[in-house]
Amino acid sequence: MIHHNVMLTLTTDATTEQKNAIVSGLLGLPAVIEGLEEIDVHSDLGLVEGNASIFFRMSFANESSWRGYSAHPAHVALASEHIKPVLVSKSALQFAG
User: How high is the pLDDT of residue 96?
Assistant: First the structure.
C-alpha cells in the first residue's frame, strides 16, 4: 500500500466555489483511477493564519497505481484547471505502509 499525503496552500482570494471544486474533484478520482483505494479530504477551518488550505490523503494498491494516478488525465485536468490557478504552494509525502 502506498499512501500519498498532500497539503495545498491556496491564494487568499480563492473563492469558496474554487475550493469546493478542488475538494469535489479530488473525491471523484477513486471512481475513475484504478488502484486509488481510499481518499480523505479536509479543508482548513481558518483558525490559524498561515495554515495550508486543503489536506488530502490517498491510499493506492501499489507504487504502479500511484504512478498511474500521477499521469491520469482526470488528475492532470483537476490540477491544471482547478488547483494550479489558485495554488501558492504544495507539500507532498508518499510512504509505504
Answer: 96
Contact 9, 90 (CB under 8 A): yes
Contact predicate 81/75, CB 8 Å: no
Q: C-alpha grid cell for residue 81?
A: 484547471
- pTM, full prediction: 0.93
Provide the grid cell at 6.
498532500
DSSP letters, the chain, are: -EEEEEEEEE-TT--HHHHHHHHHHHHHGGGTSTTEEEEEEEE--S-STT--SEEEEEEESSHHHHHHHHH-HHHHHHIIIIIGGGEEEEEEEEEE-
